[in-house]
Amino acid sequence: MTGLTIYDYLLFPVYFYVIFLIFKKLRARYSPDDRLYFYFTWGFRIKIFIIVVYTLLSHYVIRGDAVDLYYGEGKHFAQIIKDDFSKADLLFTQGGKEVDNLASPEEKGYLAMETNYMVVKISILLCFITFSSFLIINLIIGFIAFLGSWHLYLFFLKQYPQLHKEFAFACMGIPTVIFWSAGISKDTICIVSLSLLTKCLYDVTKTSKKRLRNLIIVAIAVFLIYQIKSYIILSYVPFFLLFLIISKINETKIPLFRYALKLSIPILFITVISYVIVNSDELFKEYSSDKILENISGKQSAFNAQDKGDEGSFFSLGEFDGSIGGIIRMAPKAIVATFFRPFIWESKNLIMVLSSLEALGVLFFTLYVLFKPKGLVNFIPAIFVNSIVFYCLVFSLLFAVFVGISTYNFGSLVRYKIPCIPFYVSGLIIINYLRLQRLKSDIQEIPAG
Fold it and tell me: How far is residue 15's CA from residue 137's CA, in Å, rounded to a whole number?
């Protein structure tokens, strides 16, 4: 059986020591700032603990894609290359029939898709430097995920330094995000890529330092996201670029020029959206090798076919017909499913109960931001006036739609949604902060006596 062996436990102290030395060197950068030093230290400690817990649960309890597909096939293909080095071109081959024919019998069919095989290729490379140890692969991937979440934290901290505690939780403290990004998987690679893309692309626009390095990281991140989950590119990049453009406009010193540029943004945005809607069939057909809409519809059918009442893990939002209209009709239910489900009564095991409690917490926080004093009054203006709130929430909601209508299994849902959760929570944190600032301003304006 694929998974942990005695060698994992013997190798762990050696590799952990190397990781710890890297961590100490990186942490030294933050020694002048007590807060950053504290968050970096505790973020690392929590992540290492969760990596070990995740690995043990994956091997002994959960199983699934992480251990059987991504690690298992990574180990299998690494052995093929070791036995015959001429097969090294498998690292540069796209997923397809040729690759799938070499897969283990129980995984036949999965490697016909590049979205799966790309993760396997990363696993192959890690197998070469870890003696094919599942625990060590997760240690390396999980540590990189921690660094990704840290860079996302630094990005948000640049925008609102006073919210250092809140952003630390949003980026490094949400339980399902920490847990499901603790090992080799599509979701871990996507959230790391998205975090590094955000910080590095932002840095490119703000400073000329390390520009080449940042551009290389951006290119790698975009490539990995596009290969693994291309709909993230569609739902994230336009709105993040809009945020960057508005940020640059705000730096313009000529008021008239600044207002003219800001006025052009909504006009351009409406024009682009109109063009996408009018030409949706052609655009979606050509956009990605996944053929997003067809893929979503196919996934729904597959989940429906598998639904045997397996401990209540499957659910349905209704039939999806693969059209833009179908997306619009199902969007509200998909958003609710992504952010607020599974509900407590839909959870049939401990992991789902914990996930449902977190989803309930997200629901309560959303309602808190909406319905506290000045909540609704401040909510809509904050989205459309504050560029970072706009990009965080619009990306999160669009991402939630894609995930919600394509995922009909709670076990998959809690993993697939992790790339958008830090952005959604951070957007709400900023809105709540602006609400409180407005309340303080109103109180100060009330005349004494």
Answer: 10
Mutual angle of helices 350-371 and 421-445, in 10-degree steps: 30
C-alpha 114: how far from chain center: 19
Structure tokens at 288: 């990605």
In angstroms, the CA 271 to CA 251 distance is: 25
Number of Cβ within 10 Å of residue 413's Cβ equals 22
pLDDT band for position 128 (50/70/90)?
Answer: very high
Q: Are 399 and 232 contacting, i.e. CB atoms less than 8 angstroms apart?
A: yes
Crossing angle (nearest 10°) for helices 6-27 and 34-57: 170
Q: Name which of 146, 123, 142, 150 is nearest 182 in CA terms.
A: 142
156, 171 in Cβ contact below 8 A?
Answer: yes
Q: Are 151 and 195 in contact (CB under 8 A)?
A: yes
pTM for this model (two decimals)? 0.86
Between CA 105 and CA 94 the distance in angstroms is 19
What ranges make up the beta strands (E) of 55-203? none
| CA atoms of 48 and 65, how far apart (whole Å) | 21
Half-sphere exposure at residue 124, Cβ-oriented, CA atoms within 13 angstroms? 22
Which residues neighbour 81 within 8 Å (Cβ) at sequence distance 6 or greater? 87, 88, 90, 91, 124
Give the pLDDT confidence of 269-327 residue by residue, as tens digits: 566 555 545 554 544 443 333 444 444 444 444 444 434 344 447 767 766 655 667 67
DSSP state of 346: G
pLDDT of the residue at 241: 84
Enumerate residues 6+ apart whose C-beta is below 8 A from 420: 338, 395, 396, 399, 400, 403
Alpha carbons 186 and 163: distance in angstroms, whole number: 30
What is the C-alpha separation between 198 and 185, in angstroms, rounded?
A: 20
Predicted pLDDT of residue 283: 42
d(CA 137, CA 120): 12
pLDDT at 243: 85
Instruction: Return the number of other C-beta atoms located less than 10 Å from residue 440's C-beta.
Output: 10
Report CA torsion sign: 195, 201, 204, 207. negative
Is 338:406 a contact under the CB 8 Å cutoff?
no
For 409, the 3-state DSSP assignment is: strand
Query: Which 3 state secondary structure label does DSSP give 58?
Result: helix
> Residue 409 phi/psi, 5° resolution?
-145, 125
Instruction: Count the neighbouring beta carbons within 10 Å of the beta carbon of residue 318.
Output: 11
